[in-house]
Amino acid sequence: MQTGRLRERSAGCVSLAVNALQEGTTLTEENGKKPQRRMRPCPICSKLSTPENYPFCSDRCAKIDLNRWFSEGYSIPVVETDDLDDEDYPDRG
Fold first, then answer.
1. Which UniProt keywords apply (predicted)?
2. Residue list, annotated binding site
3. H or E segment at 54?
4. Which residues of the chain fall below pLDDT 50?
5. What per-residue confidence (pLDDT) applies to 9?
6. Which pTM value belongs to this model?
7. Are 1 and 30 in a shared domain?
8. Secondary element (H or E) of residue 49
9. Ramachandran angles phi, psi of 92, nearest 5°
């Protein structure tokens, strides 16, 4: 019995999505609600994020993060090694 209910439920969700696509609306417009995200800490200042600026708490923190990307603040440090010559390998010399 559980599988029958699950099929009916998933078929209903699919038909809602198909109807929304045909009408040119989204599912969130259909019921008038935006999907709710979990409020998480802002990666810049650790305040709770807002739905308008997710994952940040404000436009200011979003711009700070963007500036860090542009100024290459988020870069992976590279450790350079000395190039090995063919002389270092006894098989190749």
1. Metal-binding, Zinc
2. 42, 45, 57, 61
3. none
4. 1, 25-27, 29
5. 55
6. 0.47
7. yes
8. none
9. -105, -5
